Amino acid sequence: MTFQGARELYRAYICCGPNCGPKGSGTLLDFLADEVARQGLSEQVTVLPTGCQSHCDSGPTMVVYPGPVYYQEVDAERLRRIIAEHFVAGRPVQEYFWTGVKKRILTQHERRAAWVIRQADWPKPPDRPTTAKPKREKPAVDDFKW
Description:
single chain; alpha+beta; rod-shaped
């Protein structure tokens, strides 16, 4: 939301999901929040954590709104440049844009083939002793009539 005479407001979301978290995204979140405050941009930029953004191979990732603008492999140096160019000057840093390709949707035939392969890797269940009662033999038929 932009008001006349006001600067653009940004929301920066850093992925803190299971893949980006071990890569230091929590520290980067704190760094970004501190740097935004230090530069007096707290009124213009809100810094928030998110769950997985599904760009795990290129993490830690950050998405900035309005946009969305997806940044990949963010670190302290990249965050400083993003603050200076994107948040202050209003020019997103295209060099850091996420360039990954969305996963291709598998056809029904490919899904079935993958399922069969996965089933082949499953361990076989152990043999269980049978607990069924043995069948009783029927008595021989007595054809004698009284």
